[in-house]
Write a structure and sequence with these properties.
Blueprint (H helix, E strand, L loop, with lengths): L17 H6 L1 H6 L6 E4 L4 E3 L7 E7 L2 E6 L5 E7 L4 E2 L12 E4 L3 E7 H10 L1 H27 L2 H18 L6 E3 L4 H8 L3 H13 L3 E4 L2 E4 L2 H7 L4 H6 L5
Antiparallel strand pairs: 1-8, 2-7, 3-6, 3-8, 4-5, 4-7, 9-11, 10-11
């Protein structure tokens, strides 16, 4: 399986809103086989915190990050988005977005208006199922990351991050062993609640030990078994080479 840019990868087969496009009679009658999408450049904003909820977006290509901003201006990254992911679900609560979203590379999105979503949820079982599935998945992923941040050491956080990326790339038809990191190490450190120096040190250590290979922003996972084992063992066990019985 070759390395594919997430700008080039076609996400429709893994899109949580596939049932909407497939069953929406309006689009069927118009003869359209795909929903039109808008292209954004790197660092451009899709949503700003406080924006009125107009609808949801599905990332069609590229990647993006979501973050919240504290009163002192500090930003905390809360999620990374890849093709097929739904963006803007936070706006359902108070009809205002609490997170901001910026693109990590040239990207495009499909838009579903709030009015359209309401109508489709009332008339399409597939649309309702897809949306509930996306919300459930997002909640599960958030809980898993919170658990990792509170109960894992630095190496385990990085290992989980790399394995999660591998899983998400594979689901989109890309290689799960070799891919481009669209986010910076500063973004990774922010997301994992770590210092950038710590992230860089761990990446260097993993590369030196033959676990990963990094060339510019291209990362190759050479030993996924070690990464998976890392999540199951303590730092003391990894330092001493012992395993718990």
């Amino acid at each position: 399986m070759s390395i594919i840019s997430l700008y080039q990868a076609h996400p429709c087969n893994c899109c949580n809103m596939l049932a909407v496009c497939a069953k929406d009679r309006q689009f069927s009658k118009s003869g359209l086989t795909d929903r039109s999408h808008r292209v954004f450049q790197r660092k451009h904003a899709l949503i700003d915190s406080g924006d009125h909820f107009a609808g949801i977006y599905v990332l069609h290509s590229g990647s993006a990050k979501a973050f919240v901003t504290a009163q002192d201006g500090t930003e905390q990254i809360t999620a990374f988005y890849f093709p097929g992911d739904i963006i803007g679900l936070d706006g359902f609560d108070n009809q205002r977005h609490v997170q901001s979203v910026r693109f990590l590379e040239t990207s495009s999105v499909c838009f579903f208006s709030a009015k359209e979503i309401k109508s489709l949820m009332q008339n399409s079982e597939g649309a309702l199922s897809g949306l509930l599935k996306a919300m459930s998945h997002a909640l599960t992923e958030d809980n898993a990351m919170l658990l990792a941040l509170s109960n894992s050491d630095s190496e385990q956080r990085v290992a989980k991050f790399l394995l999660d990326l591998s899983k998400r790339y594979k689901a989109r038809g890309c290689s799960d062993k070799e891919f481009i990191l669209s986010m910076t190490r500063t973004d990774i450190a922010n997301y994992l609640g770590m210092a950038i120096e710590t992230v860089s040190r761990i990446f260097t250590k993993l590369q030196k030990n033959g676990i990963i290979s990094v060339a510019h922003r291209r990362l190759q996972i050479l030993d996924p078994i070690w990464l998976k084992a890392c999540l199951q063992t303590s730092l003391t066990e990894r330092l001493t080479g012992t395993t718990s019985s």
